[in-house]
Each structure stands twice: as structure tokens, then as C-alpha cells.
Amino acid sequence: MTYPCIDAIELDWNSCFARSRRLTGMNRYFDGPAAILETRGPLARDAAALQRWAQVAGALSRALWNDEAALCQHLHAHGAELLIRCPQDQLFTATEVNEFAWEVAALGDDDRPVVDGFDRSH
Predict the structure, then answer these.
(1) What Cα–Cα distance (Å) separates residue 1 from each residue in 6, 9, 10, 11, 107?
(2) How far is it, in rounded angstroms, from Cα 34 to Cα 9?
(3) Cα dihedral sign for 13, 77, 35, 94?
(4) Which of 14, 48, 53, 81 has the fewest C-beta atoms lying within 10 Å of its C-beta?
(5) Quick one: which of 47, 110, 111 has its CA closest to 73?
(6) Strands, E, within 1-122: which ranges?
(7) What is the DSSP letter of 18?
(8) What is the pLDDT of residues 3-59, one digit of tens each?
(9) H or E element: which one contains 13?
């Protein structure tokens, strides 16, 4: 079956992560829920990009949940798994935070602060 309307659209899909999902309970990394993202692309295992992710994800997590963020990075042959531990009722938010932090990190090595004066009302 073909879909002419969809087939006519040419998308340049160049996502910097393969998948992003929620872990709803205990898992191999944490004793509770977490958001997990699998990196891909040229910076998937880049140390500077992974450090930048940790800075952004940590800053946003601390601002949202008022405690020290629990982050985890697991490197493998094709990239990395990036995790943020969070409260059970904040899994969707943590998934968005994780995706945003990695997208910022994958943009490059810009030294400007990305998270400055985070406003909880937005």
C-alpha cells in the first residue's frame, strides 16, 4: 500500500539518538524508574558530548527534582545508553529532559551555558 501524500514528503531524518524510552521500575542501572536514551551518529561515543550531556541533564534534573541527579552512561560498540533516574510520576518529563540534553550535547562543543536561570513555570 502506498500513501501519496506521505511519499511526496522528503524528510532528512538525521536524529542524534536511536530510541528514547522509560524504565518503569528496577532495572540493571538503578533501583527505581529512569529515562533511557540510546545515542547514535558521529558523536555517539564522544567523550566531550557525553560530558556536555551530563552537565545539561544534571542541571535540569536538579532544577526539576530538587536533589542530586542520578545519571548513568553505559558505553557499547554502537554508542551509549544515557539514563536519568527520576520519580515514578516524572518519567515523561525525564524522557524529554534526556532527549533535550543529548540534542544540545550533540550540537557541538559550544562553551555557552545552555541551562541558565531555568524557569520552573515553563
Answers:
(1) 12, 16, 18, 19, 37
(2) 35
(3) negative
(4) 14
(5) 47
(6) 17-23, 34-39, 71-76, 79-85
(7) E
(8) 555 555 554 445 789 999 999 999 999 999 999 999 998 899 999 999 999 999 999
(9) none
Query: Is residue 95 within a helix (H) or strand (E), and if so which, with residue range?
Result: helix 91-106
Q: All 3 cell numbers of residue 82?
A: 544515557
β-strand partners of 50: none
Tell the residue number behind the cell numbers 532544577, with chain if given: 63
Contacts of residue 25, defined as CB under 8 A and 6 or more positions apart, other chains included, come to 32, 33
Beta carbons of 95 and 20 less than 8 angstroms apart: yes
> Whose CA is closest to 53, among 69, 31, 33?
69
117 has a pLDDT exceeding 50: no
Helix, strand, coil percentages in the chain from 3-state DSSP, rounded to 5: 35, 20, 45
